[in-house]
Amino acid sequence: MTCTTRLPKPVTEVWDWQMEGLCRGQNSAVFFHPDNERGYARAAREEKAKAICGHCPVLQQCRAHALEAQEPYGVWGGMGEDERRQIVSAARRRVRAYSSSTSLS
Questions:
Q1: Has 53 been labeled as part of a binding site?
Q2: Which residues hold [4Fe-4S] cluster (predicted)?
Q3: Is 56 annotated as belonging to a binding site?
């Protein structure tokens, strides 16, 4: 589940970008996998979603939101769940490494 404490306050200006998303009005099943979807079916669905994202005028805002909120499911900002998880994990490792190095000083 998305951690809502990292989300910005409900200010219209913060969320307006979503009104311009190409995913708006699309079938959400393209962007979110059904239970137990694996292999070719999952890859094909994600590629279709990412193709839509690739032309989206708010791709960067969507991606930034997904990474900041650590969205656990779906394709956001042209990135799948595993891609976002890798970026978030790498950022956490960098923070831990930095914290460890500064605490030793």
A1: yes
A2: 23, 53, 56, 62
A3: yes
